[in-house]
Automatic annotation (TrEMBL):
Keywords: Hydrolase, Magnesium, Metal-binding, Multifunctional enzyme
Pathway in which this enzyme or protein is active: Signal transduction; phosphatidylinositol signaling pathway
Protein name: 3'(2'),5'-bisphosphate nucleotidase
Lineage: Eukaryota, Viridiplantae, Streptophyta, Embryophyta, Tracheophyta
NCBIfam families associated with the record: bisphos_HAL2 (TIGR01330)
Keyword Magnesium included in the entry's annotation: yes
Positions with a binding annotation for Mg(2+): E126, D189, I191, D192, D341
Listed InterPro entries: DPNP, Inositol_monoP_metal-BS, Inositol_monoP_superfamily, Inositol_monophosphatase-like, Inositol_monophosphatase_CS
Protein family (similarity comment): Belongs to the inositol monophosphatase superfamily.
Record Pfam families: Inositol_P
Highest taxon above the source species: Eukaryota
Needed cofactors: Mg(2+)
Catalytic activity: 1D-myo-inositol 1,4-bisphosphate + H2O = 1D-myo-inositol 4-phosphate + phosphate; adenosine 3',5'-bisphosphate + H2O = AMP + phosphate; 3'-phosphoadenylyl sulfate + H2O = adenosine 5'-phosphosulfate + phosphate; adenosine 2',5'-bisphosphate + H2O = AMP + phosphate
UniProt GO MF annotations: 3'(2'),5'-bisphosphate nucleotidase activity; inositol-1,4-bisphosphate 1-phosphatase activity; metal ion binding
Length: 404
């Protein structure tokens, strides 16, 4: 018995996180019944592998994800600064976002693969190198490679030889995975909120990790989001400073620090229980979410505050620290949500005590591949307010359908 117990516990402590989930399930269901008589141990079996995942540690993966997103944010900031300083004519040019998008994906992909060696590295990401491999893109590719090398060198801890154009293309193409319900998959949006990026507004670098179809960690780098929160989570004087890094690991809460590396602070969603006292976030772009429908729902809930419209998953970050209470997103008919637009944001909010669901009240399912395939829209709020919000959403959707 002693051998069984010590072998099982050692297995829990030392093996790879994914193996640990399987091992824990195997351990609890195989050995725990035999240990019942040892009352002092009081080991309770997890109900399912999600519970098992909640006692896993993804510390190394999280530290690497934070580093990758911070460096990618540095690359994006550099490009955005140059864009904003350029003349009006070049501001209508979309190439800066192209360069930053590919550059960000190459940096994150390269760091994850280099620092977390695994036989089955899998990355589901927004970009692929198809267009960049064309003859007319050679100059753009060289700009991207230069930026990627400068960014990796700026970290100081990186002891890497310069990447070639081909290395950069290969790193970008690592993001072609289809994801799914088995094994681990990184999920990346290298620049979420491309329109916000071009306007000089909000955007995010969003990175999540799926393990057996569940999001187990998430990092959101929001280079233009003010550090000062309306809920007062940051005590020291941050006044006009911008640049937030949110991060969450399953079962351990959500934290925020400045992108330049301040001490992390634990954050929590708003505790507002009365809908009329709530404020709500929605997409900046009317083409991305039905503003007339959210206005109808807000009216039904007697929400007095006007909508707060910001781009990208920065909305999830802002909600996780209580800047607002509700986030609603209703894309136009036919739009298919991608997993990289929600994976990191979803865990950042849920670990801060919030709930994310589709318009039918179902949790988002990240296990089906690159798309979410959900019902109608996405709603987010705290646990107390969710039933009221869901009721108002469903009534409004019915009224809207019957008026067509
Ligand atoms: N037609 C349509 N409908 C709904 N959503 C769409 C649509 N087109 C794009 N997208 C996705 O929206 C992502 C931008 O996030 P948001 O919609 O939250 O922000 S905002 O509209 O920029 O304010 C945006 O992310 P990025 O492409 O990474 O910028 C898209 O994935
Ligand atoms: Mg996106």
């Amino acid at each position: 018995m002693a051998i069984i117990l010590s072998t099982a516990l050692l297995g829990c402590i030392y093996v790879h996180p994914l193996t640990r989930i399987l091992y824990l399930d195997h351990y609890y269901y195989t050995y725990a019944p035999k240990l019942k008589s040892i009352s002092s141990l009081s080991l309770k079996p997890p109900r399912n592998s999600v519970r098992a995942a909640s006692i896993m540690s993804y510390d190394k993966e999280l530290a690497t994800a934070k580093k990758a997103c911070s460096l990618a944010a540095r690359l994006c900031q550099k490009v955005q600064r140059a864009l904003l300083q350029s003349d009006v004519q070049s501001k209508s040019d979309k190439s800066p976002v192209t360069v930053a998008d590919y550059g960000s994906q190459a940096v994150v992909s390269f760091i994850l693969e280099k620092e977390l060696p695994s036989r089955s590295f899998s990355l589901v990401a927004e970009e692929d190198s198809g267009d960049l491999r064309k003859e007319e893109s050679q100059e753009t590719l060289q700009r991207i490679t230069k930026l990627v090398n400068e960014t990796l060198a700026s970290d100081g801890t990186e002891n890497v030889s310069l990447l070639s154009d081909e290395d950069v293309l290969t790193a970008i193409d690592s993001g072609k995975s289809e994801g799914g319900s088995f094994g681990q998959h990184w999920v990346l949006d290298p620049i979420d909120g491309t329109k916000g990026f071009l306007r000089g507004d909000q955007y995010a670098i969003a990175l999540g990790l799926l393990d057996e179809g569940k999001v187990v960690l998430g990092v959101l780098a929001c280079p233009n989001l003010p550090l000062q929160t309306s809920a007062g989570h940051v005590q020291h004087n941050v006044q006009d400073k911008v640049g937030c890094l949110f991060f969450a690991q399953v079962g351990t809460g959500t934290y925020m620090q400045s992108l330049d590396g301040s001490q992390p602070t634990k954050v929590d969603v708003s505790s507002t229980e009365n809908a009329e006292d709530a404020s709500f976030f929605e997409s900046f772009e009317a083409a991305h979410s039905l503003h007339d429908l959210t206005s109808m729902i807000a009216k039904k809930l007697s929400i007095k505050a006007p909508p707060v419209r910001i781009d990208s998953q920065a909305k999830y970050g802002a909600l996780s620290r209580g800047d607002g209470t509700i986030y609603m997103r209703f894309p136009h008919r036919g739009y298919r949500e991608k997993i990289w637009d929600h994976a990191a944001g979803c865990i950042v909010v849920t670990e801060a005590g919030g709930v994310v669901s589709d318009a039918a009240g179902n949790p988002l399912d990240f296990s089906r591949g690159r798309y979410l395939d959900l019902d109608t829209g996405i709603i987010v709020t705290n646990q107390k307010l969710m039933p009221t919000l869901l009721k108002a959403v469903q009534e409004s959707l019915k009224e809207k359908a019957s008026s067509l």
